[in-house]
Amino acid sequence: MTQSDQLLEALEGQARRREGRRAFFRAAVGAAAIGAGSFLVANRAAAQTLTDADVLNFALNLEYLEANFYSYAVFGTPIAATSVGGTGTPGAATGGRAVRFSDPIVAQHAREIALDEIAHVNFLRQQLGAAAVAQPAIDVGTAAGGGFSSAARAAGVITGADATFDPYASDENFLLGAFLFEDVGVTAYKGSVGLLTNKTYIDAAAGIHAAEAYHAAMIRTTLDQKGIDTPTLIANTEAISNARDRLDGSADIDQGIARVSSAAGDVANIAPTDANGIAFGRTAQQVLNIVYLNAAAVTAGGFFPAGVNGTIRSSALSA
């Protein structure tokens, strides 16, 4: 059996497992409702102790991360110095560089997302005013112990303590790096918008959530198309998805882009949803588990070596 045959067989197995997982969801709507109720209760409890500014500042930390990754990839520089000041411990975004895109479509997508993410940073900072947190230290580099390489190692995309993953080395690597962030951004806004009380902020957060979902769909669609000729891309999205699920707890709230089988034929998996077609959400703590690359309750690590700024700083012990 050739390597390509093995990869195709693995992908077919993943598709069968995903179809079984969706069948499980359909058979367990009652249990899902209970889980959703628990999630809402947790959110309401958190809302009693968090202000809108706390929630927006948490989102701002994530936007700093995404904006700097895309800014490096497209422009070769971090975001402007005028967009990083504020309260808390300031830090620099380091390690990135420009991608030499070979596919003009990928380059166009990257430029659009970069401009959107930078606009998100500036918008949130404007809304928060003097309460905006400073950009924390952010690692978007390629060192063996850095965020990207550690994430790729946790997923099995690379192996060995000295192995590195460089999201700036090629179009395909860039897409995998973007895939790592975009799905997390969508679930973060889905999970946090319910904590807001000001209708203006709710509307703005919903708008950013929608933009992040568009971005994720762009990345997932492009990976899906390129995966036809390069099956390892599909397999790597599944590996990254599984790693995120291991970090954020036992609930299966993440999906790669492997296609699934149905009576009508193969079905694309561009939009990762539950059995009701609803996008997944994560608590702030689950999001921090992923960006800190740690399933324990910690306050720093991974892409934020000194932690994020603001009230919401700690991940939670994954159950």
UniProtKB/TrEMBL annotation:
The chain crosses the membrane at residues 23-42. It comes from the Bacteria. The keyword Acyltransferase does not apply. Pfam families: Ferritin_2. The keyword Transmembrane applies. Keywords: Membrane, Transmembrane, Transmembrane helix. This is Ferritin-like domain-containing protein.
